[in-house]
Amino acid sequence: MDAIKNAINKIQTFTNKQNDNLLFHKLKADGLGNVTPRDYQLYGIEWLTHSWLQRQDGGVILGDEMGLGKTLQSVAFSLHLVETHQVEQPILILAPLSVIDGWKQEFARSAPSLKVIIHIGDKDSREERRQSISDHFKFNNWTSEKPPFNVLVTSYEICLKDHTFLEKFKWSMLIVDEAHRLKNAESLLYQTLKTLDMGFKVLLTGTPVQNNLKELYSLLSFTSPDIFSIENSEDFVEYFSTISEENSKLKKDLHKMLKPFLLRRTKNEVVLDLPGKSEVVLYTGMTKEQKKLYKTILTKDIGAFNQETGQKTRLLNVLMQLRKCCNHPYIFPGVEPEPFELGEHLIETSGKLVILDKLLKFLKKGGHKVLIFSQMTTMLDIVQDYLGYREYTYERLDGSVRGEERFLAVNNFNATSDTFIFLLSTRAGGQGLNLMTADTVIFLDNDFNPQNDLQAAARAHRIGQTRPVKIIRLVSKNTVEEIILKRAEQKLKLTNSVVEGGQFSSVKADEVPIELNNILKFGLDDLFNQDCDEENKVDLEKLVGKTSKGCWSTTKEGDGVAKQTNVQENEQENMYVYEGQDYSNIASEQDKNTFENFVKNVTDAIDTERSLRKNPKPTVQPLFDLPARKRKTLTEDEKRELKAKREENKAKRIKLMEEKRADKLKKLRESHNYESCKIELPDNDSDDSESLSSETEDSSVATENEEDRQISYVVGDLMEPKNLKNRDRIICHCVDNSGVWGRGGLFTAMEKISSVPRTQYEIASKVKDLETGDVHLIKFKEATKTDPSIYVALIVAHTRDKNNRLSPILMSSLSEALEKLYHVAKTTGASIHFPRIGYNTPKFNWYGTEKLIKKMLAQRGIKTLVYYYRRRGHNNKPSTSASSQQQATTTSTIASERTDPSEQYISTLSDTSSKETSPTAENNSPESNVDLAEIFQNCTMYFHDFKDSAELKKLSRYVIAYDGDVDKTMTSYTTHIITSITSGDVIDSNDLKNFKETGLPVVSKDWISECVRKGNLVDVKDFVVDLSSSES
């Protein structure tokens, strides 16, 4: 410890001598964007700069409480280093995937002059980016040549995958967001980062101490390994574990040791205008089903409770199962009723959902927006079913949600007041997100580590919040959840002691030993005597607090204040402590006796079962032996003859059963007056197939033009398929084999036009004519003089299990169905029209589906179209009449004669858009139709002459994400022509002529980027490309 103290004494103490206004003007000169840092943020930037000047190979921990703007301070500090201190080597930033977009936006807002690369994505896109960067280094000298960027932002996971690429650079600074990921010095991420050639290290974390001092030492060792050697970790913890209230010298030593490396401010200290945050614990009862399951779990592994043979791992497993039971019994497979249907039983089976149901009605009426956190994604699944049943609008984010979808979900929730609830997993959704439009946070379960819950709550209680925030915890009474909550409170004291309050814990790194035996038995006596109905009868306004005009009341009125704990107050009196004994940490004698009775009942039942197996009932013996019948010995010929007769009889029985089944089906179909519409594959020697249209003159759709063997992508309504050469059209839709017609999306859109497909589908199920791989071809619209017939092809490509869960698309069944459609289309000349089939179904894989459609249909000469419905915001465009529709089709046909690279990328555009609002979308709920920022509302772009596919893809995604549309060809809807050429470049004369005829502005690609950067539609006059001298 003396060596550490001596090294720290050599570091110059930071004193903030610079005037804050002077630093602000310096930052503005550096190019600071349209932001004004607060005084404490300017202090933090100055502290970071001082620390960098002191030790450029060292590091610090910026440990400000969540929501105080650590990202802004880091971005401004990076800008200051690059512009003022002329740092040329790049800066590396690591962050959770969910906050990457937040970093991107902060750099665009606060440091627009810095060149920032966001290094995430799939393997191919990352390889393309790596190659582009590698091409910049002509002499392959990665450490001395100036790179083509100032900052590279990536995620932890990508860092581990691409560490060999990152090792090539000499990084001037490493910034790690949510740096408590490095609390374990033996973790793979920790060890990987140590291999990088990096200078200054900045660790950002709102929770520098989560469990013990050893974790804090790991962070200190990462920033300054020359001072805090990892080998001295145990000595550090041992040294400071002896601190007591009387030992003020050791307290001062620790504060002096931390001061040069750790800067920690709380909201109470620096943000006086931030609305308050209050917390309330709601104790819920357990239903009969939960109690029965709770008892079963406790007695399932009795041996784990034996002190001699008990294993901690087995007891922890029991603890985890009990926590699941406290949430909802349906988390366990086989408990929910079969077949599963949504209903009140979903709520009545769980005490927590009973309270949550009442609570959400209360909050909805009060005009609040709510965040709901749970550590279990299976619990989120159940709550999601409940929200759908109650028709509450919601968004969801957990570890399975991709980065782009996370960004859209957060924007959806923040951009409108219509979305009532955001479902989040505590770990994936509890870090880095800004959800301050919510003012209520509900925890369905509590984390053993209280810092994770604090991180989650800080999503709402942060700078910019204008309303008081209420945190509500649901805890099952007299269960292990009470102990978990108590343990979390004890851990929270350690953080307050070390970095905030100046008081220190006297325990070592292992803290108080956890007696799992007693924890699991806690509250059993009271639990099985309590009445769930009585426990769940609550006056929410009395317990939670009053609300007015969407805001929580800050006045302490009513009886509910006794239950409410303000986080800014000191520790309150503990109701479990009596005469110095803490009864919350141990099971009472009554609890132990109740558990022993459980064990005795189970043991007696097991012994009874064993005795029955050992002493079976005696069988009645015959009075005398019966003579055994002698069997005739068969020759080999007789054996073969007997075997042949058996097989013949078996074949007759099978044939008879099939005849009976066929006769039964025939009678069943006759009773329903059913005529099958199922397509059968033609015989190999026959090319005949039932014609869809007697007016089709050319039955061959094969063509020598390779362009016609590609899928065409259409932005439009699938219910109005394009008329191609006056041929019949087939609309395809995937269904399952249950015979239950769906609700919403294409199901509803189709039924509004004709009820025939639904009726045919439901009867087909009743008469057993619905198997996977089938295609039922049903006439949808009769032909007219100007419009050919429209058919609907119901493709049976899904199944449902016994719990009524929908399967993913069965690719083998889809392939079989497409083969049947191919033969029909080939014979009749019909075109085939698809939605993005499978959207919103489990394990949705559009790319695999698209590849199969292309292989089975388009590349074999069948005209195949895929439709994307126009987003809301474009519905104000006039609908096309028959003549205008024909005009749009003609324009599209003429334009499609030119090859445009955008055609091959239009299929990827909807992946980054929000939920479709089309009748063809899978979920056609009005509440879910939430718009994002409307920068490009009412704008439809046509991209011209883009050779760089990556750039085209990026710009197209910008347009779609901000409420615009992209056309693959110029149509009557096109409002802007975006080009990659510049004034004076040579352009094709036909293109130039078409541009002049439309009268539309031809705009530089930089216009889109400028609109996105400024957040509004910028005037195009400064970006119009001069074509007067461009004709070839």
From TrEMBL:
Helicase C-terminal domain ranges (all copies): 355-520
GO biological process: chromatin remodeling; DNA repair
UniProt KW keywords: ATP-binding, Hydrolase, Nucleotide-binding, Nucleus
Compartmental location: Nucleus
Domain Helicase ATP-binding stretches: 51-226
A single GO molecular function term of this UniProt record: DNA helicase activity
Pfam families, per the entry: Helicase_C, LIG3_BRCT, SNF2-rel_dom
Biased composition (Basic and acidic residues): 633-655
Family annotation (InterPro entries): ALC1, BRCT_dom, BRCT_dom_sf, DNA/RNA_helicase_DEAH_CS, Helicase_ATP-bd, Helicase_C-like, LIG3_BRCT, Macro_dom-like
Region (Disordered): 609-655, 676-707, 876-929
Ranges where the BRCT domain occurs: 931-1025
Comp. bias (Acidic residues): 682-698
Domain of life the protein comes from: Eukaryota
A single GO cellular-component term on record: nucleus
CDD domains for this protein: Macro_Poa1p-like_SNF2, SF2_C_SNF
Compositionally biased spans, kind Low complexity: 879-896
Comp. bias (Polar residues): 902-928
Family: Belongs to the SNF2/RAD54 helicase family.
Cited PANTHER family: CHROMODOMAIN-HELICASE-DNA-BINDING PROTEIN 1-LIKE
Protein name, UniProt field: Chromodomain-helicase-DNA-binding protein 1-like
Lineage of origin: Eukaryota, Metazoa, Cnidaria, Hydrozoa, Hydroidolina
